[in-house]
Specification:
By secondary structure, the protein is mainly alpha-helical. Helices cover about 65% and strands about 0% of the residues. The chain is built from 5 helices and no strands.
Length: about 80
């Protein structure tokens, strides 16, 4: 059974993978998604609250992935 903790860990890892794949710094991703750099840093580090659906959609849009790619334990990473 999947736990919320597993989803959060997978999200943090995928956020960084997808961000580096499109060659964006945390600051660039934050700016394009309408977020602060500190919040993106906290999301990747797992020190912030869980992101809202609105934040997930903004991040997915900038990273050119589906929201499910960021949060699903079953989603496959795109190359």
């Amino acid at each position: 059974m999947n736990t919320w903790g597993q989803v959060e860990r997978r999200f943090r890892a995928r956020l960084k993978v997808y961000r580096t794949r499109v060659k964006l710094s945390q600051e660039e991703l934050a700016s394009r998604a309408g977020l602060s750099r500190q919040y993106v840093q906290e999301l990747e580090a797992g020190t912030s609250r869980s992101p809202s659906l609105q934040v997930l959609c903004a991040l997915a849009h900038v990273l050119e992935v589906e929201v499910g790619d960021l949060v699903s334990l079953k989603a496959k990473e795109r190359s």
